[in-house]
Amino acid sequence: MGDVLGGKGAGLAEMCRLSIPVPPGFTIPTDACRRFLTSHSLDSTTLKAMRDGMTFIHTHTEGACFGDHTSPLLVSVRSGAAVSMPGMMDTVLNVGLNRATVEGLAKQTGDRRFALDSYRRFIQMYGETVRGIAFEVLETPLREARKRAGVEHDNQLSADELARVVDEQLAAYQYATGHVFPEDPWVQLETTVAAVFGSWHSDRAIVYRRMHGMPNDLGTAANIQAMVFGNRGDLSGTGVVFTRNPSTGHRELMGEWMSNAQGEDLVAGIRTPSSINEGPSSLQHTLPKIYDELISMLARLEKHQRDMQDVEFTVQDGTLYLLQTRAGKRTAYAAITMAVDMVDEGLIDKKTALLRVEPEQLRTVLHSEIDPDAEKFLLAQGLGASPGAASGVIVLTPGDAERLSAEGTPVILVRRDTSPEDIHGMKVARGMLTETGGMTSHAAVVARGMGVPCVSGCKAMRIDADAGMVYFSSDIAEAEVRVGDVITLDGRTGSVFLGEVPRVEHQLSDAFETLMAWADEVKKLGVRANADTPEDAAKAVQLGAQGIGLCRTEHMFFSPDRIVHVRAWILAEEPTRREAALHAIEGFQRDDFSALFRVLNGYPMTVRLLDPPLHEFLPHGDDDILAVAQLLDVTVEHIRMRTESLSESNPMLGHRGCRLGITDPDLYAAQARAYAHGACDAVDAGTEVKPEIMIPLVMVTPELVRLREVVQTQWDLVMKERGHAIDVLIGTMIELPRAALVADKIAVHADFFSFGTNDLTQTALGLSRDDAGSFLDHYLKDEILIFNPFQRLDEEGVGALVRMGIDRGRQARPSLKVGVCGEHGGDAASIHFFNGLGVDYVSCSPYRVPVARLAAAQAVLLLQPMA
Amino acid sequence: MGDVLGGKGAGLAEMCRLSIPVPPGFTIPTDACRRFLTSHSLDSTTLKAMRDGMTFIHTHTEGACFGDHTSPLLVSVRSGAAVSMPGMMDTVLNVGLNRATVEGLAKQTGDRRFALDSYRRFIQMYGETVRGIAFEVLETPLREARKRAGVEHDNQLSADELARVVDEQLAAYQYATGHVFPEDPWVQLETTVAAVFGSWHSDRAIVYRRMHGMPNDLGTAANIQAMVFGNRGDLSGTGVVFTRNPSTGHRELMGEWMSNAQGEDLVAGIRTPSSINEGPSSLQHTLPKIYDELISMLARLEKHQRDMQDVEFTVQDGTLYLLQTRAGKRTAYAAITMAVDMVDEGLIDKKTALLRVEPEQLRTVLHSEIDPDAEKFLLAQGLGASPGAASGVIVLTPGDAERLSAEGTPVILVRRDTSPEDIHGMKVARGMLTETGGMTSHAAVVARGMGVPCVSGCKAMRIDADAGMVYFSSDIAEAEVRVGDVITLDGRTGSVFLGEVPRVEHQLSDAFETLMAWADEVKKLGVRANADTPEDAAKAVQLGAQGIGLCRTEHMFFSPDRIVHVRAWILAEEPTRREAALHAIEGFQRDDFSALFRVLNGYPMTVRLLDPPLHEFLPHGDDDILAVAQLLDVTVEHIRMRTESLSESNPMLGHRGCRLGITDPDLYAAQARAYAHGACDAVDAGTEVKPEIMIPLVMVTPELVRLREVVQTQWDLVMKERGHAIDVLIGTMIELPRAALVADKIAVHADFFSFGTNDLTQTALGLSRDDAGSFLDHYLKDEILIFNPFQRLDEEGVGALVRMGIDRGRQARPSLKVGVCGEHGGDAASIHFFNGLGVDYVSCSPYRVPVARLAAAQAVLLLQPMA
User: Fold this and answer.
1) By the 8 A CB rule, do A315 and A230 touch?
2) If DSSP codes are grouped into helix, strand and coil, which group holds residue B654?
3) Interface confidence (ipTM) of the complex
4) Nearest CA among B307, B362, B305, B314 for reference residue B336
5) Which residues of B touch A697 (CB under 8 A)?
6) Which of A718, B675, B822, B856 supports an S-S bond with B523, CB 3.0-4.6 Å?
């Protein structure tokens, strides 16, 4: 009934059905809201329902009557959409008070102070939320009153003082709106309900729905209930309780209780609340009967709702009312624990358990986090580019990172941006902080691959490398820190803190493993990892990867003892030197491949042949160039000329990928030989191998035909030489729109497709990942894009190409294996889409493997009702 | 019958039908070749046809018989595909000679020298073309003989000396092939025919067919004819004649004649040939009866073939034989003249006339050319990037170009490459020469737009700007030239010459105008021009453009008095300065637009709002930066910071196009106002206007929705202010794959689509125009691509997106107007494709407008038979 009654209304209705005491009330359903949004007024059907509803309340409130001067009925009005969303009106309490009824309430309760305090609260809530008056306007009379009385808290004001506050608020209201505060309770009620309905179309609510892909036309319900008061003495009070521990997931009640107080006092923190069940002022201790009653209700509620409940309750003069029940928010850890426990308890089935955990939440389970309770000094805010928390001393160069790390000092590498040359420094750093770049910058991608925290795009930061200083300047803080000072990064939120902030480390729980095993039983998509080193591969396998979907061979090129050979190959003028360099490259790649095979132990491994443009491998600084010139015995001039001749206006669209293979087939040949030897070595060591080679950036079929032959020839030669007969699959990346369009022709020559959705997004959208930062925020803020297409697949555009590529490819070759190895392979929403397209596997960074496994399972479960 | 008999065979058959004397012979049809290519041997059907054919020849040659020792028959074997192509075997003469028949020939003719000379020619031709022996091998004995005899020419060698040459050639043949030279005339004939057939599959022929999109499976015919000899005395001779002047197209015979000579002597230039009809040694003068006979035959031939004929003939002992007739090659000028004349003469209809001219040929008609007879010193060879010829003094900076031009000195601007900042220098230069860049570099595109010659990618050149020197170093020449020296460019061939080379200027002929008018009657596609200045627009209209399809507003930004305002806008920190700068930009754009409207005089004009990234407008050199800083009263540091913040890794995929409109809507608003005012100004001046605005680089629909509103709002404001009610069409460029994929959604908000096929090619293929130079040549040479996709549309990939864009766009909005404004809009093959897709108009550089008009007409004509 959530669609009709909203979440809150449905919860209340459920409680009624379970005979759980709630304040009498009724729900105006969502269709009334939809009609209101068309006509901009409450129609007769709605007005009649409200009259009937109020009559129902009268009959359940012992003679209290709406607007009655002697025994006035007060009501709360709460919005209640299926999902609560920011920007929507929440609550107005004490509707029904006016100059006459407030006196009635004072008499009836014998507490004029209470009555007037309720009135001024109503005036404030109504003024702010229904009429949009600025908070300050109606708060000022209260502040002035406190000042006059010389007291600190509102509850120290006398009835007379409050009477003056009310008068002044009513005057301020009239001044601000040009109208007298409505005296008629029915006018109060109707305008409040209209405001609740109207807030469905507030800007913030619209934005929120767009961002979360929620439909715009559902509307909200409104809940109207008789007021109950927890501030009517020692037999009264209010509390919030979770049926299980929302932090750990353990099966234990957790909640707060405050006697003689209203809900908003609990929120405002005027007094420190007590535990619900611990200590002398706990509900259990002070009102044990009520407590037992509550316990029994909570058990019934949880069993009925089959989920952990977050319940608000009020005790008025010894009578317990439950005001609201809903599924409680929880940490990732708790979500996993509860889901698995509830299956054990028979509350839910495995399918439900799998749908109870947000895949994205799993990221937090795999990384350490900043202790939320720690004291911290925030220096700046960047983009949370790779989750986890890390502390270390600031270093500004990869060299310093290596040196200090070797001495055992944890370091944070701080750079304007990073390039593949920085890899040796990045490998040893505990975290990375960059001034430029977005969520998919080099630093971010590498950091996520390594599972190391990274904050990128920290615009408030400026590095003065010569002075060894880092300056932070923004609204958040103005600060200077020095190389060697300690900072802490929160790679999930993008926060940068001064000094060392305590962290909380997580262990993978048994429940986690159980849930993942269930996911694997359900999912159809294979999940592989993007990994380039045995360490990454081992981590990936540990986290459940079923192979490597993308091994970027060039990542093996950057350590100092290797890059020299790559540079020699690029700079060689005589064939013999070129061959010698290739021989060296072949040697170290062979060892890497063999080691990777042994880690994978029979899982498939897809190696991508060289992809980046060659200029990425050449030295840039004067010192580096000189060093390389001396080392390789070439002139500085030669290096500069070669660098210039390789430089490109748009490297992304330049001489890279298989274009290198076509112009310089010797490297692809050497890589194929290295891979073949690596496979043989692994087999000789007793390991099963499943080698796959993929040719990147194929644009036209002849590229693949030509390079497939180069690769297959070398492979066969090595097999003959080694006396092995290992098969290799040779496929291609589909990462250009043209390749997707002619996939039927390409598929004839490809054993598999792997969609490189990063580059496919860049080319299909004409959008450089590295440069989009300058306007992408603007696009998201202005809702020209409703999500970042590098994080979540653009289904309409890029997705259409993927679909076309798969359909046309399988038309030509029905057995075609299809994978996805872009960043989207680790994104839950994108995984749902890929699952629907019949993709065979996704490949993502190791730390995203559990996310992908769970998302893949959910994709299957959510498709089932439709199948 | 060309498909069966080949071009040559069909021509011979036609001549027989017209009772024109040809040497008796027969044609082995193409299907024999196709069977040979499968079985790799001549089958019995073919062999029987050859025997029958030779019998036919015997019966027509007065008792001469193949292989007969007394009266030997000699034959020629010529290949004859439907179209002749490089790499295919051409001709072997004198087949049938051996040690015995050569003596018979000597006796029969009483000329042993002639017989032996014929034999050695046969040995050489057979050895080279049938057996692939290197030219040098069989030429050496001849050279040695000349040396021994102390003579210069072969015809000075005696019979005995030739006998020794023959012996030595036969020995050399045996040494080179390992086989004795075949004595059996039938073996000679069969192996020659087999070689002719086999040459269909030669690498060069395959490449040629691929490059020209010709089918690979047609095969060639072979023509076998009795030899006739023009070198048998004063009543013999040989000649070549065109039925009309192939240079001018005029209706006058043009040809050469050489008495007592064979066809190959004419080619080899041993003696200077006579005119066919002028001078004392002309055919007309020496053999008037034969001449009259020839004239009558040529008239019959031309009338029958309905085209100018290129005829080879031989006179043997007073008997005229025609050896070959074919449509003669002609200049563009002649092609146009003849086509129009022949319609006047009733020889052909207009449709045929339109198909007689290659659209691409028209380019040469519109530009001056190097005088082909002039003496010249070639300095280097670059890419022929913009046709035409120009001479001028070398300048190395746009400033010098302006200064010297102002003094009346013609200049050639020589640069490493050019950028939009150089425009003021490019505008005044007679030609441009760049070291880097390809056919679509900035210099090339601008030059073509201005109709100015350009040679780009001249790699042999190196500029030393400080020394004022330009060095040329390559196989062609080693030379140094200095600023102020004169050079001449041939922008069609890419040649760079030292000094001033005489040029031939063309005037547009009446025939040209007539043919173009016929084209306009037939074509369905509209043809517009890409033009940014009133001068360009006037040229375009003169050449038949029906409006402007792409006016790049930023091209108005670069003159020194304007760029300052653009820079002020980019660099402004206070809103007031920014507004002032915009106001200035609006002012000059308004004047430009108004002037353009007046030139167009009622034709539509499509203005593209700002497209390039802002960093293109900022100064780069230290001096420039300082000057701008002083002028705009900002700090150098500010300019550097702004430049750095605007710099991009991949500007092509960066912050440009409508992304600028989204982040900085004030400029698009100012441009819309300027355009609206310009339109009002033109209307006030009595001109009809058809304004269209297009939003570039749309990726997602909300971009267009948002900016359409910005533009329409400003437009309406100006109309209200000016009291006008001019309608403006607002459309979008489709230049990203995503836009083509979601064209149905975009079309809802677009009055028209204009396909920017340059950028669409770059993004669909992931191929930067500026960077592809480093491997595109390799791709073309290796036939991974069979044409440059920036010159001719890649139909399979980019074309599929265009088709999708049109289909989906019109699905949503059937009335959608569709244009193409990339470089492909001026390419004939691409125009055929666009015509087939139902595009409404193409837009190209002004000098390509006639090409596009003719291509558009041909597209219609060639489609008709299928319709």
Assistant:
1) yes
2) coil
3) 0.81
4) B362
5) 766
6) B856
